[in-house]
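Structure tokens please, single chain.
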Amino acid sequence: MSKEENRFLKFLKKKNIEVSAKRYGIDALSAMAQGLFASLLIGTIISTIGEQAGIQFLVDIGGYAKAAAGPAMACAIGYALQSPPLVLFSLIAVGGSANALGGAGGPLAVLVIAIVASECGKLVSKETKIDIIVTPAVTIIVGVLLSMWWAPGIGAAASALGNAIMWATELQPFLMGIIVSVIVGVALTLPISSAAICAALSLTGLAGGAAVAGCCAQMIGFAFMSFRENKWGGLFAQGIGTSMLQMGNIVRNPKIWIPPIVVSAITGPIATCLFHMEMNGAAIASGMGTCGLVGQIGVYTGWVSDISAGVKTAITAGDWAGLLLICFVIPAILTPLIALPMRKAGWIKENDLKLDL
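Here you go.
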């Protein structure tokens, strides 16, 4: 390594710039999902409650929260990248421009552009005597210019991929129901953000319903399969928290992942073929499963939106039955049953599913 390369690497370390899959693909992506949750998703929930209850101020509050989605995502990403304050606050403008110009694929545009703008801002941070001007100027100019240049293309590509997945699910609901359910469910348990992936691809409709099914299979499946080890604390921590808690145990014994994955392959096509369950709420809810019951609230808000648009006449008993069976009943029953012979065969041993709660 030359002296120049060594000096540059030291400079990057000094600026806390770490070019890695973990920082950009896990930390930033997961943070983006939190920013999206704290704006678009919670705003959708609040405004839906307001619409159903006839409370206008809740509708207004929800509208303002949804409008802040771009800035919220960008700030969350900057926080995950450990940006200094002036860079972090400047990302508000960057997120707003990237999300607006990215269209339906706005979240992916925000992710890419906020990462670049944040790292550029960090490069110049506190390097001049007029840092209060230079740092925000560099961050905003780089971010907004990239938004004008990249965001439409990134948004169009993400939207096209999401539309292709949704089209394929409509065309082949059984096969795609399995594929989408398993992949999104696995992403939920991995230390990446299934919610951010669904949001970035604008994954709704029948494919969104399959994604919800896969996430619920993981969360409710692990919660009930590990009840003998983790009792009620584990049931709630995984069932309405996250199945990611089992990631350490999965690394030690990957076989414990088999039952929830098998169940997701079962509930996915049941959702798409039997109950035709669709996620027509916020796309981020497709990747949330039973976390705070966000997935179910998203399906419900989709029903409400469809009724308002005249696409759906009413919410039926069959709708509720499908939601309960796919999201709760089937995973709660099937996952422990599939795990039972695996326990007897020694594939899953005592305390393999134990959590430190």
